[in-house]
């Protein structure tokens, strides 16, 4: 569209004629037609020259009018409002998110997503409250069962209630205090050894009691534990352990003291010591549970520690 006004401009430059106004062109037309009407004789050279000049003026007028129209079209194209109207469809094609329809659609989609999120949060809160209610009800029921189970009085073989120090107290207080005593008993059973004397009293004459006591750890002393994906747990016997036990048994009372479970220790010691050189086996129930660790206390060994090694 911008190349259309170029042709009349180029033609005017080739004619080397100045741009005339519309009033001047109209005056030229009137003079030309007046001359033609006054003379009915054959045209002379002067009239021919005047006619040719009028034709030139008409051509110039047509060129000027076309140039003015093209200029007006160009000025309209440069109008900001028109440019905006023309550029809007182009921007909408290049950037769909800038289009008014796209903005309204995105806004509706955002509102719908927010509404869905609000509904989902409300449903999650309801589920959470239901879970809290179920958990709280289950905990309350478990507490009542524990009070009844650990707080009920003991009965003998005939089903008769055995009286204790809580029998004459109110019923609720009886159950609560018995439950507390039972919990304290189980806590003590876990934290302290199962008996005060871990070993029996020394043998009297005529039995032979070794003069010294040798306390050994099973793991990493007599055997070494090893675990692989193919074999699982295996315990490897230390080289020369058979000769070691045989020689120590002549002068020592051999005691194996470990923090492992008895179900793990006893089968290993049965295979390790078929001759019975190990006289006593102390496992986890003979230890003290302190700060998450099983501690072996030799004070409960029931032996003179001056003769213990």
From TrEMBL:
Pfam families: NIF. Essential component of the TIM23 complex, a complex that mediates the translocation of transit peptide-containing proteins across the mitochondrial inner membrane. Its main location: mitochondrion. This is Mitochondrial import inner membrane translocase subunit TIM50. It comes from Drosophila rubida. Keywords: Membrane, Mitochondrion, Mitochondrion inner membrane, Protein transport, Transit peptide, Translocation, Transmembrane, Transmembrane helix, Transport. Residues 107-121 have a biased composition (Basic and acidic residues). Belongs to the TIM50 family. Component of the TIM23 complex at least composed of Tim23, Tim17 (Tim17a1, Tim17a2 or Tim17b1) and a Tim50. It is found in: Mitochondrion inner membrane. It is a single-pass membrane protein. It comes from the Eukaryota. One of its GO terms (cellular component) is TIM23 mitochondrial import inner membrane translocase complex. Residues 207-309 form the FCP1 homology domain. InterPro entries: FCP1_dom, HAD-like_sf, HAD_sf, TIM50. One of its GO terms (biological process) is protein transport. Residues 94-121 are annotated as: Disordered.
């Amino acid at each position: 569209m911008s190349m259309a006004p170029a042709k009349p401009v180029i033609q005017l430059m080739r004619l080397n004629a100045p741009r005339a106004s519309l009033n001047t062109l109209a005056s030229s037309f009137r003079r030309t037609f007046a001359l033609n009407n006054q003379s009915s004789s054959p045209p002379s050279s002067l009239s021919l020259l005047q006619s040719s000049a009028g034709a030139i003026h008409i051509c110039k007028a047509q060129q000027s009018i076309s140039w003015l129209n093209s200029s007006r079209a160009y000025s309209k194209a440069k109008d900001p409002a028109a440019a905006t109207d023309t550029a809007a469809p182009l921007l909408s094609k290049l950037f769909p998110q800038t289009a008014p329809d796209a903005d309204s659609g995105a806004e509706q989609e955002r509102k719908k997503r927010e509404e869905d999120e609000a509904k989902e949060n409300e449903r999650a809160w309801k589920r959470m409250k239901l879970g809290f209610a179920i958990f709280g009800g289950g905990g309350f029921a478990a507490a009542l069962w524990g009070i009844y189970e650990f707080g009920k009085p003991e009965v003998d073989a005939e089903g008769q209630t055995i009286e204790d120090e809580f029998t004459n107290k109110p019923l609720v207080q009886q159950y609560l205090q018995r439950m507390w005593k039972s919990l304290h008993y189980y806590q003590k059973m876990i934290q302290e050894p199962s008996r005060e004397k871990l070993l029996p009293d020394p043998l009297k004459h005529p039995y032979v009691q070794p003069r010294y006591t040798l306390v050994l750890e099973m793991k990493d002393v007599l055997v070494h534990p090893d675990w692989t994906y193919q074999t699982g747990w295996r315990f490897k016997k230390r080289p020369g352990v058979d000769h070691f036990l045989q020689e120590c048994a002549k002068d020592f009372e051999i005691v194996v003291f470990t923090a492992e479970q008895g179900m793990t220790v006893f089968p290993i010691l049965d295979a390790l010591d078929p001759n019975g050189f190990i006289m006593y086996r102390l496992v986890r129930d003979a230890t003290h549970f302190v700060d998450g660790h099983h501690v072996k206390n030799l004070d409960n060994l029931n032996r003179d520690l001056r003769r213990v090694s």
